Amino acid sequence: MFPWKDYAGRTSPLKLVVFIALFAPALWVALAFSMGWLGARPLNEAIHQLGLWTIRLIFIALAITPLRHILQWMRLVLVRRMVGVAAFAYGIAHLSLYAGDQAFDIAKIATEIAVRIYLTIGFVALLGLAALAATSTDGMVRRLGRRWQQLHRLVYAIALLAVVHYCMQSKLDLWEPMIMAGIYGWLMGYRLLSRFLPRTIIVRRRLPVAWIGGLGVAAAVLTALGEAAYFWIAFGADPMRVITANWSLMLGLRPGVVVLGLGVAVTAAGGLRGVVALPPRRRPRPA
Ligand code: HEM
Prior knowledge:
287 residues; mainly alpha; 2 domains; 12 helices; 2 strands; 72% helix
């Protein structure tokens, strides 16, 4: 089946637009590489760009479930598998360019992956994405039934490994990795809330918007504390000074502030839609 067709076999404008958009970053990197726009170490820059898009796409795929509920846009689920498979493709391109940078010396690449812990972590994440991509066909979804969903929960661990790989290789500039870590906290927090909040709060599958706001604040606070802890452990910087930097724009927007802004935006969207409605629980199928 063509990726832009929906379950009924009709062309879905949403799927078509997303399908085309998914090629854009790769085409941009290829163009920038061939035009010499990627600086002094173009191959290294291309590896970075593709790595960034791998993690961004993993996060976009993870954001689809909460956004469906908050924006009341249930058809968003149509593009989730496509985005996940694209994340895997970008991951493979990222690994291939790294292999190219090592002159395709397989023994050296294998040794590097085995001894450099951040590469080991990236490789395990990519293996996980491979398992998800391989089971993403309609046939596999049917064949695995409920086990498909259980298997695809692996994406939570894969996203965590991706954040750790990103943080470890970034060393000094942890601005974007910290934002990713904060968003990861929000995404996991949303799943915990929608699954474990008692029925006195989630009445008729409706999650109060105030809880989404609270989650945004909690994710932002954790991001700011995580940043302070990192600078304290790595450089002995006074944690209070790092935390108070969040109130000053002199150092630019700190990760905690960015995560707070995203949390506020999502809460406002939920507020405008008036309700965060979770889909009805599926009844267990008879054996
Ligand atoms: C799901 C899997 C992976 C994700 C999400 C991922 C993501 C990333 C990200 C976000 C960066 C940083 C980009 C930047 O700073 O601008 C990066 C860098 C890098 N990644 Fe990955 N990566 C993955 C797997 C791998 C694998 C399998 C390898 C190789 C075995 C690898 C090798 C590298 C290298 C060499 C760098 C640059 C390090 C440096 O310049 O010091 N990654 N990756």
